[in-house]
Amino acid sequence: MLAAMYSTDFYSRYPRWLFRESEPTTARLPEQYACHRTGSRVQRAQDQLMRPQALDVARFDKERFTGLFDQWRAQIRDGETTATYDTWLELRYLEPGSSHTYKQGAVVFDLIHGVVYEVRTRDRLRRPFRVQLDHELPYVSFRDTANAFDFPWVAFPKVFTQADLMSLRRVY
């Protein structure tokens, strides 16, 4: 009778998280996605704390865009190579490389040297491209999969919009 008068609920005095039996599950992205903006807010905060500082794509110096061309000219001058610039870039693409984390606006993403990625345009068309890194500066070469053709290499900044980068995923 006394218990009915005093409705004492032991669990209501303490926060609910003290009584969880298992860890909360967070939404996990498939490993092929390279954009970090998606996922839960907690996951994005954890990813941001665990990752190295992202390089802002908009802050690359203009002088950086000619780095590979200057390196190729120096190798031609020193007699280290006789390949054309495009052939030299293709050979460089096949070498093992590194990866970096980049930021464009509010979107944070990873790029790995020698990997093929794709983005989806506004029309939901897929645009596959290859990536090669010159230290930290990314270069991309778009692929025409219908004709098995790779376009020339271009420097990454201002190639994609933030909406394109939200759909960025690793192909192979």
Helices and strands in order, then pairings?
Layout: H1 2-5, H2 41-50, E1 55-56, H3 67-77, H4 85-94, E2 99-104, E3 107-112, E4 116-120, E5 126-134, E6 137-144, E7 149-150, E8 154-155, H5 162-166, E9 169-170
Parallel strand pairs: 1-2
Antiparallel strand pairs: 2-3, 4-5, 4-9, 5-6, 6-7, 6-8
Overall number of structural domains:
1
Q: Can you give the mean pLDDT? A: 77
Instruction: Please bin the fraction of helical residues.
Output: 10-25%
Secondary structure class reads alpha+beta
Tell me the Rg in angstroms.
24 Å
Count of helical regions: 5
Percent of residues in beta strands: 15-25%
Shape: globular
Please summarize the sheet with the most strands. 6 strands, antiparallel
Structural description of this entry:
- The chain is globular and about 55 Å long.
- The chain has one domain.
- The protein is of the alpha+beta class.
- The chain is 23% helix and 24% strand.
- The strands form two sheets. Strands 4, 5, 6, 7, 8 and 9 form a six-stranded antiparallel β-sheet that branches. A three-stranded mixed β-sheet has the order 1-2-3.
Features:
single chain; 172 residues; alpha+beta; 6-stranded antiparallel beta sheet; 3-stranded mixed beta sheet; 9 strands; 24% strand; globular
Structure in a nutshell:
The chain has 172 residues and is of the alpha+beta class. The protein has one domain. It is 23% helix and 24% strand.
